[in-house]
Amino acid sequence: MKGILSAVLIAVLFPLAGLAAEERLEGGVNPGYHEPPGWFKQSFLDLGEDIAEASAEGRRLLLYFYQDGCPYCAKLLEDNFGQRTIAERTREAYDVVALNIWGDREVTTPDGHAMSEKAFAASRGVMFTPTLLFLDEAGGQVLRVNGYYHPHRFAAALEYAAPGGPAGSTAFAEYAAANAAEPASGELHDQPYFMRPPFQLAGHHAAAARPLLVLFEQKQCAACDEFHREILAAPGSEALMRQFDVAQLDMRSNTPVVTPDGSRTTAREWAHALDVLYAPTMVFFDEGGREVFRTEAYLRTFHVQSALEYVASGGYRTEPNFQRFVQARADRFHEQGIAYDLMD
Q1: What DSSP string runs through 153-217?
Q2: Cis peptide before 280, with omega less than 30 degrees from 0?
Q3: Alpha carbons within 13 A on the beta-carbon side of 131
Q4: Which end of the chain, N or C, is surrounded by fewer C-beta atoms within 10 Å?
């Protein structure tokens, strides 16, 4: 089960909500507002009706949660939906409805409850933009994507959750591994502050009085290569990582693991039990072995470091909304005259 602040993750992928962006992002890079494609459904936001209409046409409903100025939303719209094959496949299999996580339009949920967009986003635990919810004909969730996926993996998600797709017969992580291959180094990258096996995680972090970070990766993973080559090599990253006990696990391997709750399992089985869908995924546990947060989508340095600081500082205990924490962090950079780039 995902932790109370799971990115269920991503995230994070937000700029600073509800702000006068020109003022709050001075010194940083503001991607601005990006208009959704004209082929997105113009909905009255009665989601039960939307599901029924999509089903009648042999499609499913795809909810796209966004916010203005979100750089990862911009990548989704430009890099993914900007590809003809992806746009055509999406239009063929889905009706897409865009929802602003800070919006005030009224949404009627599939079970008939009326609330604002922002209340609906909160009720679904949306803490990252973009978040995409793929719903079946009964309104059930087929797949959830918490954050940005590169086009090849996003295309796999579209096929997985489509009507008649393999969602009912295999886990998405397994499907993506087989159908979303990408050029990569084919190796795990070590860091001097990583724990060494055997991975006896039960009680380890409690004894050290530090939170535990479990980093799920895999060998054939270009995003993992980038994570080590650029993000962990960036100034400030190592100091933040050293505030955790860090266990790197190959999510495709049978490496023995004793989990924080004392269960004996393997890296592959534990990743499956935690519903880890993306590599690299960072799963954070507190000193008592309870999952408190995770990131599970493509992130650049600013947001990775924000996530590390969020947990290491204990910020998650007083600020349950990660986006608000990042907003405050960006404001602090601005006040100190520190330039930053949301996509650095």
Answers
A1: HHHHHHHHHSTTSGGGTS-HHHHHHHH-------SPPP-TTB--SSEE-TTHHHHHTS-EEEEEE
A2: yes
A3: 29
A4: N
